[in-house]
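Example 3.2
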Amino acid sequence: MRLKKRIPSGREKDQKAIELLARLREEVYSENPSAARHAAFNLSWMQEDGFDILKEALFGTACRATKGAAAYGLRKMRGRMKKNGMALLEEGLRHSNEGTRQVCARALSLDKEAKRQAAQQHQQKQRQPDSQPQPRERFKPKFKISEISHKSLRERPRSSRRNPPEESRFNR
């Protein structure tokens, strides 16, 4: 897909930042969903600039894989942009495009599920009694170390298996 050139917002500090944003923007629109998600995750760390690119990808006329990657990036926003990302996903529930509505609904349900599981794990940790970790026992070998005799094998008595059986009334 051929994208229009993005107008720099003025928040970029140097030319490398502008080039990085352009490269990540191209990757979000990639046909490869894995590469698009990876780029969206990287954009989620870039505050307003990443937010703008992900918003454009979610509400634009891109394919569903691109919209899904943008929703993933908005869901993974951290810090002060987390609330903005979630608000944008909720806004997407009222969008005119059916694909955008479905992607936003799925992203919000995944986020609610993750929050529910985190709360459940937190409750389980609180239920466990506060106990100190048990001190590790000292290492106990599984076998007994015995001293090796300095006698040669010829001087040692042979084991009973190697000796011929004693004479009995059956083997005369």
